[in-house]
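Researcher: Please translate sequence to structure tokens.
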Amino acid sequence: MASAASPLRVALDLTPLCNPIQGGVARYAHQLACGMSDLIAERGGRLDVLCRRSRWRSRSMLPRVPGTRLRWIEKSWWPLVKGVDLVHGTDVRVPNWKGITQVATLHDLFAHVSPDFSDEGFRARRIAVYQDVLQRCTRVITVSRRTKADLLRFTDFPEDCVDVVYEGVEPQFQPASERAIGEVQLQLGVKRPYLLYVGELSARKNLVRLIQAYAAGGFHKTHQLVLAGKASFKSEIVFEEIRRHRLQEKILLPGFVEDRHLPALYTGADAFCFPTLYEGFGLPVLEAMACGTAVVGGSVGAVPEISDGHADLANPLDVDGIAFAISRSLDRSREQLAAAKRHAAGFTWERTARETLEVYQRAVRHPLQLARPARTVEEPAKRAQNLGG
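Model: Translation complete:
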């Protein structure tokens, strides 16, 4: 076991990157690996990046991280590279390597928060992973204070072993040129002026009420609504709502949009609409702000924390409230948008890596934690009551 002052030998799991459609967790894993590689090397340590063998066929999706070596693993195997001091699971799961300090990142606890955000089988599997990992980890990283509070509410993991480390915004997210905006319009079929949503088309994202607010507020008369993202849990209700309001000609569904198009897509929007029912962080909120775009957010979950007064928030269950927030966002001044852009600039992946390294150093100062029992999930009624708590 290394001391906090010794060069650290870290293994970082990049399995989330082996997915053809990469969301915020994949972005987190990639950016953390790039930043951590330099930090650990500067201190004489070593970073190995890991991927589960079940993702072998998707290996071409793994990025090359300078200064690291890729190792293929399975949960029950001893590490293929010996001499690891700490292993970090970037999306809850952590290899169960005996005698090695284990750290996990939890991006959200939506499986605990509500039974309406995923199917029963997924919820059960996810909660089982939480219970397994929390018995083994020395420390847990959450990406917001909201996620930390949820972790402490639904489990018995010690509060003093939880560290909040915010995610970052990449430099590419900045106001795009008119030429770039025009190119993305042509490629995706976007028509200005437009309102924008980016993320999964799922029940948790509250898109049905967003569509209702879009219609009720009369925005369909002046703006196109672009819902950019892949279909996910209960996405059929989104399509049904579009048909019910006869908005097929007003709402664009371009599917998943690649990262290279996002800055222009954000910049061209009059407002970014993200009134979700629950977020563990809400990275698109900061990306939109960094591109100089007004943001509408839900008043629950982590969005109020992450936006910190620079977004127009609404109760996500209140359709009229969402419509009013959109109206307010369209009236935001240049000064307000500039302040939001400065706010987003404070979230960097360099800071994420530096603070994560500090978590590693705290973790290796202490022996591995004894196994702890994980609390069972609360009753559904109590979860629903606690949704915005």
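Researcher: Any highlights?
Model: The domain at 9-168+350-385 is CATH 3.40.50.2000 (Rossmann fold).
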